[in-house]
Amino acid sequence: MTAAIDLSAVSGPLEGSRIELRPDRPLLLGRSFRGVHLPDPLVSIEHAEIAWVTDYYWVTDLGSLTGTFLDGERLSTDAKPLIPGSILRIGESDFRVVVRKGWPPWAVPLLVLLAVLGTVAVVLVLRAFKQEEYDPWIPFEEPIHMRAGEEVP
User: Measured between alpha carbons, how far is 83 from 2 in angstroms, rounded to an integer?
Assistant: First the structure.
C-alpha cells in the first residue's frame, strides 16, 4: 500500500477540500481544533483518528455517539484499514480515500542523486578516452584514398 493517499471531502462542511494523510503523524477528526475541525453538531469533539501502521492507514472510532462509517459499515473501536476508493463518513461529512498524484517525497532526492552520478560517469568516460597528444587545433592530414587490392603505403 502507498503512504501517499488523501481524504477528499465529497459532502459536508469541508466539501471540495482535500486532507493530506502523513505517515509520520496520526490525524484526529472531530470538532476539536487539534486535528481536522469538522463544524458539525453530529461530530464528537474527538470523533475518529487515522494513523499509519504497518503499510496501511487505519481509522479508529474514538467512542463517538453517532459513529464512524467506512463504506456504509459502522466501525467499532477496532481499527479498519483505509483502501483507495473507500468512503469514510463522519457526521454529515463523506470523505473519499484517494491516491495522491504527484511525486512521492523520495523522488526528488533520487533524481538529484541520479543526475550527479550521471555527470560523474560522463566525466570519467571522457577522462578515460582523453588522449594527451591530441590537439584539436592541429588539422588532420589529408586522408589516403585507396583502391581495392592496393597495399597500404
Answer: 10
43 contact partners, CB below 8 Å, separation of at least 6: 29, 30, 31, 64, 66, 90, 91, 93
Contact status, residue 6 vs residue 21, Cβ threshold 8 Å: yes
d(CA 61, CA 78): 8
User: Mapping DSSP to helix (H, G, I), strand (E, B) and coil, where does residue 108 land?
Assistant: helix
Residue 4 CB neighbours (<10 A): 17
pTM, to two decimals = 0.64
pLDDT in tens, 100-145: 877 666 777 888 888 888 888 777 776 766 655 555 555 656 556 6
Work out whether strand 80-81 and strand 56-61 pair parallel, antiparallel, or are unpaired: antiparallel
The C-alpha cell 463518513 sits at 89
